[in-house]
Specification:
302 residues, alpha+beta, Creatine Amidinohydrolase, 7 helices
Length: 302
């Protein structure tokens, strides 16, 4: 039964005993139009192949570019939904942060993150939860064979995870030091915070994404650490965890008010320590506005 605001169209229910392909073919041929058919990048290959076989492959086009244009600028209601998704990761981080102690494993931290995400109201993680101490083969990482190795004191642990509420994604990151951080860690952490702030401030309407990325990189490069910031500043986010525009050197998209994207500088120093931070920013006329409330200050569990 349709309710107010429901999309128009026929709801087709396919039972286990039905001929699914025959039903699919009937619906496809019933579209009537002889024009092009837009297919999303994430549509099952089987579905795309069947559409091509039934209607002709020459009629198929990618629809992701068109949809992305519609998704880029968020409405007030969409920003509110993203805010709810952000609250789930912030509640999760607050609950998990005290667990970063000597002897804990990355697998245990990842499990705790996903448990707390559910408890906070996230339908699912928005991507594979990643807890890690660096990018080298010998670093502890929730996604490798080192996931179950106990963490020693004097280690920085990076968190990268997200939640989903009402279909909208969050993407979040913080770093916690296990022990008493050395002075060079503290100094590097401040450089990273300056980079994040520079990226946020540069994200004004009309600014090319590439220029925002360059602004974020500048404090790290000026400190002689540019080679250790190994990725772009961020990516668009909304109904998908990664959407365009990308805040990267090659993306010349001019930002518009209401566009949302991550601001996630990191500094990975092999053999020493690694750190990252990540928040979501919405573009406004005078610069970006961070949607997160979680503190960015250095955290150390002594």
């Amino acid at each position: 039964m349709r309710t107010a605001g429901s999309p128009s169209g026929e709801l087709v229910v396919v039972n286990e005993t039905d001929d699914g392909f025959a039903t699919f073919e009937r619906i496809a041929r019933g579209l009537g139009s002889k024009g092009r058919i837009a297919v999303g990048d994430r549509v099952w290959a089987e579905t795309t192949l069947n559409l091509g076989r039934i209607l002709g492959f020459e009629r198929l086009r990618t629809g992701t570019t068109l949809v992305n244009e519609l998704r880029r600028v968020k409405s007030t209601e969409e920003l509110e939904a993203m805010g709810r998704a952000i609250r789930t990761v912030e509640q999760t981080m607050a609950a998990v942060a005290p667990l970063v102690v000597p002897g804990v494993t990355m697998a245990q931290l990842a499990e705790a993150v996903e448990h707390e995400l559910r408890a906070a109201g996230s339908r699912t993680p928005s991507f594979t939860t990643h807890i890690f101490t660096g990018l080298g083969a010998d670093e502890l990482d929730s996604g490798t064979e080192t996931a179950h190795e106990p963490m020693p004191v004097g280690t920085s642990v990076m968190f990268d995870f997200g939640g989903v509420v009402d279909g909208y994604c969050s993407d979040f990151g913080r770093t916690i030091y296990c022990g008493d951080p050395p002075d060079d860690y503290r100094e590097t952490y401040e450089i990273m915070l300056a980079a994040q702030e520079a990226g946020r401030a540069a994200a004004a309407a009309g600014t090319p994404a590439s220029a925002v990325n360059a602004a974020c990189r500048a404090p790290i490069e000026n400190a002689g650490l540019g080679q250790y910031f190994r990725h772009r500043m961020g990516h668009g986010i909304g109904l998908d965890i990664h959407e365009r525009p990308f805040i990267s050197p090659e993306d010349e998209t001019q930002l518009e008010p209401g566009m949302t994207f991550t601001d996630e500088p990191s500094i990975i120093l092999p053999g020493r320590f690694s750190l990252r931070i990540e928040d979501i920013v919405v573009c406004e006329e005078g610069g970006g506005r961070i949607l997160n409330d979680y503190p960015a200050a250095l955290v150390a569990n002594g």
